[in-house]
């Protein structure tokens, strides 16, 4: 039986009363000790409950901070956009860069955050002491350290949010709001506000900052101001954490390669596709999967590779990826055909083609029918069990 809206509201209030954000988070101490021990003990029901409790408290604090934070961000008088997911970030870039070629300042603060002085940061928070004490305790337990570690994970796509770390993004946004105020005071007020509003765009996605302007000198001054601001919190930028170039030359952001080009004298376009590193890692990951499962049932191999393909399509299907996906499909076919030939060394090529890559078959994938001749199937399954092509995940341009 479905709960009424009143019952759901009462249930939420009961949960909030039970969690009780207080001056201490003693119940969370145990789960953070488990995290820091580098031992995966979440199969223990006690640790799982403590983890859920800790994340719920983080969510409550985040909900308490959001109204004030977002109202401040909306009050900024130049184009400042704070993005909640990677898709919103790419859309914001598309709208800010699609009119003409601009200079782009791309900054990654992840290494700088390692040296953040928590005491100086907490002094900037104008929030109730009960919330500040909880945040101080989380930071002491390693909340931000966990976020940094997960963000730099080799197998984590940069567009993914770190898991088990609900509050970190909001804390970073609070920090970057202070940066926006500093920039407005130090740099932006020296320019004509109406002109600056048209020329400067400031986009934030967690610890990533991207600023674009037709005026290169503005970005130079902003970069110097960002460097000075970081020193206030005992942070600094290394030479690998920033980049300044024309959008027409292309730049990497969130594992996307973004470039601006002119189709004609009056027509321009923004070209977005996966970065070269993403494509190489995808091919290498597939090679490792095929090697590790070379003696396993083909159905298992297809299942795992399908997951890889769908994840790639999720992040890049809306980009300009037709040619890129065709290339990746071809490379994956070569990898798979080598495996099949290795399994049947005495069989001729036409036999392998007939049994594993049949001609002109119908495939139903994601609500659409496709006719293709080079799709890997498992001939031992009664129903058609196949590996979808990456090209099928091309959707639309943003």
UniProtKB/TrEMBL annotation:
Keywords, in A-Z order: Plastid
A Pfam family this chain is assigned to: GIIM
Superkingdom of origin: Eukaryota
The keyword Plastid is assigned to this record: yes
All copies of domain Group II intron maturase-specific, residue ranges: 282-357
Protein known as: Maturase
Biological source species: Rhodochaete parvula
